[in-house]
Design brief:
Length: 116
C-alpha cells in the first residue's frame, strides 16, 4: 500500500523481539508499513491490506507444500531429455504425453531413437 520502509519493521523488532516481529523484519524487503487513518477520537486505526494478506497466504501455502514434499523441481529446458526424465522420475512423477504416445515408456523409447 505504500513505500517500503525496512526501518519501520526493524524498530518494531527491537522494541519487541518476538518471532512475529522477526518474520516481519525479514519481510520488510517486500512489505510496506501499514497505513493508518484517524478515527473520530483522533486515534490511529490500521487499514486492511488485502494484497499483503494474499501474499502471506501464498507464502504459507508454498511453505506447507515444501514441508510436505510436494513442491517439485521442473528441470531446465537446457537439460538433455534423459536428465529431465530422471529428475522428474526421482520425484515420483509419471508424465502423460500427447496424442500418439501411449505412455511415458513409449515416449522415452521414441525420444531415445530420435536424432540428437
Amino acid at each position: 500500500m505504500g513505500d517500503l520502509d525496512e526501518r519501520y519493521y526493524y524498530d518494531r523488532y527491537v522494541a519487541d523481539p518476538s518471532p512475529c516481529t522477526f518474520r516481519r523484519r525479514l519481510g520488510a524487503i517486500v512489505l510496506s508499513p501499514p497505513h493508518y487513518r484517524l478515527d473520530d477520537n483522533g486515534r490511529p486505526v490500521r487499514l486492511p491490506d488485502p494484497k499483503a494478506r494474499q501474499l502471506r497466504r501464498e507464502i504459507q501455502d508454498l511453505a506447507d507444500e515444501f514441508a510436505a514434499g510436494t513442491v517439485f523441481l521442473d528441470p531446465p529446458d537446457v537439460w538433455h531429455h534423459d536428465r529431465q526424465d530422471a529428475c522428474l522420475e526421482a520425484q515420483g512423477l509419471v508424465l502423460g504425453r500427447g496424442p500418439g504416445v501411449a505412455n511415458a515408456a513409449a515416449f522415452k523409447r521414441a525420444r531415445a531413437a530420435a536424432p540428437r
